[in-house]
Specification:
Length: about 400
């Protein structure tokens, strides 16, 4: 009986610990709630980060709006952000609130839930640990500083690489230790049978090899080897990092964990374009148990409406096919009632051979004498293409 009571007490204490330091409800997205799909099926998510302005008081970079506009067309199930949504350093409470409001306003353009892991510009900067306002403001927006959630049978973990007071002997080097590391180990063990495990955080464990002087001030986490060993042990599919303002994808180690540094959402770049110094975001398509990751440079995937004799053009001038699950097209109400309309595409090769790009109308609203149609493209939009879209009345049956 005494042993049973001790067991109950231990389990209760463990559950309380998990509830306090990481639970399925602690982290939450902005832009609405995450859906609750079935346990299996394909899905899409986007990864980006590091959009903070170049200087204190400066506006958010223009490319951030472009990224969110394109995410709206991709319509992923959700977005993972790797931190530094604000400038943050030496902000007053009012200044930090205003910067978060500016980010949230632009993020609404994406139209899907967005999860964020804390970056150094959000948490403290040069402020002492006794000033808890940065953590409080972050948690009021995004929930817990570290936590996890599940989606379509996959498991996603956000970590806090900026935890205050947990530095090595070098004040510039952070570590993930103490109760966060304990929680991470327990969370990985509890979800080791997930369809796939993905981890996202700010300060990297795999820094880029070709950077400029600014990146030299970004040392990797002090216990990177310990963290990488954990990720290997539990078969993590991919680790998404930020902090360095560039794209970097080191070759996978023998542990087959794929690491990415994806810090190109608008912050000042830390390398030449050929070394990863370009604006970007990642589109991840989960197909079965295998994630397919595409690096997208913004400005090459968009919808142009009402030009050159067509209702719209869906343009993908990148070198990779991309999903387009939400394309909005406006046509005159005289074209037909919502239930009468259908959409089609007419993409061809250079020698006029048709390339099928099936589309389906999934929504229709009317205002000011026009129909606004929402279309879903059934296949990935071919690379280096401009897809003409037309809307017309459905033929009446004979």
């Amino acid at each position: 009986m005494a042993r049973s009571l001790r067991t109950v007490f231990f389990c209760s204490a463990l559950l309380m610990r998990l509830a306090a330091y990481g639970s399925d409800h602690g982290i939450h997205p902005i832009n609405g709630k995450l859906g609750t799909p079935a346990l299996t099926g394909d899905f899409v998510f986007v990864v980006a980060g590091d959009n903070r302005p170049t200087a204190k008081g400066a506006p958010l970079p223009r490319v951030l709006t472009t990224i969110f506009d394109e995410v709206y067309v991709v319509r992923p199930d959700f977005v993972l952000w790797t931190g530094d949504t604000v400038y943050g350093y030496d902000d007053t409470k009012e200044q930090l609130t205003a910067e978060y409001d500016d980010f949230a306003k632009l993020a609404k353009y994406a139209g899907v839930p967005l999860f964020n892991a804390p970056g150094n510009h959000e948490i403290h900067g040069k402020k002492p640990c006794t000033d808890t306002d940065p953590e409080d403001q972050f948690k009021s927006r995004f929930g817990a500083l570290y936590d996890s959630f599940d989606y379509w049978g996959a498991h996603f973990i956000a970590l806090d690489t900026e935890q205050c007071g947990h530095t090595t002997s070098d004040p510039n080097v952070q570590v993930i230790d103490g109760r966060q590391l304990d929680w991470l180990t327990q969370d990985l063990e509890a979800h080791k049978d997930a369809r796939g495990i993905f981890v996202f955080f700010h300060s990297e464990v795999t820094p880029a090899t070709q950077t400029d002087d600014d990146a030299a001030n970004h040392p990797k986490l002090g216990n990177s080897a310990e963290l990488k060993a954990l990720f290997k042990q539990y078969g993590v599919k991919a680790v998404f990092q930020g902090h360095e303002h560039l794209f970097f994808q080191p070759p996978p180690d023998d542990d087959k964990v794929q690491y990415y540094v994806a810090g190109g959402a608008g912050a000042p770049l830390y390398a030449r374009p050929e070394a990863g110094g370009f604006s970007h975001y990642l589109v991840v398509q989960m197909k079965g148990s295998n994630p397919v990751v595409t690096v997208v440079e913004p400005g090459h995937f968009y919808v142009e409406t009402g030009t050159h004799g067509h209702a719209a053009w869906l343009v993908n001038s990148t070198d990779t096919p991309l999903p387009a699950r939400r394309v909005e097209v406006n046509v005159p109400a005289s074209t037909g009632q919502c239930g009468e309309l259908e959409a089609s595409t007419s993409l061809t090769t250079w020698d006029n051979k048709p390339i099928p790009v099936p589309v389906e109308i999934t929504g229709c609203t009317t205002a000011d004498g026009r129909r606004t149609l929402t279309l879903t493209v059934a296949v990935d939009v071919p690379s280096r293409s401009s897809v003409p879209i037309d809307v017309h009345r459905r033929p009446k049956p004979n």
